[in-house]
Specification:
mainly alpha
Length: about 80
């Protein structure tokens, strides 16, 4: 399983999304389940899955799947 697939799985499990969700359109506060509580659940799950620590700015800026991918790359995780 690739890191990209792992990240998709984290999104699916944390936000109760369909496994085939459209990564290009998912957005914080626009996607059912991705509210402030869902966001913190997602952040913790990403940190646990990839053994990383997101700083407050990264947490605030992570408002889409694409940004999550970019953030992991910045932390040295290939996606």
């Amino acid at each position: 399983m690739t890191n990209h697939d792992r990240l998709r799985r984290v999104f699916v499990e944390s936000l109760a999304l369909s496994p085939d969700f459209d990564a290009d359109t998912i957005r914080l506060y626009e996607t059912p389940g991705w509210d402030s509580m869902g966001h913190m659940t997602l952040v913790v799950a990403i940190e646990d899955e990839f053994d990383v620590e997101l700083d407050p700015d990264q947490i605030i800026e992570m408002d889409s799947f694409e940004v999550a991918v970019r953030t992991l790359r910045e932390l040295g995780v290939s996606t």
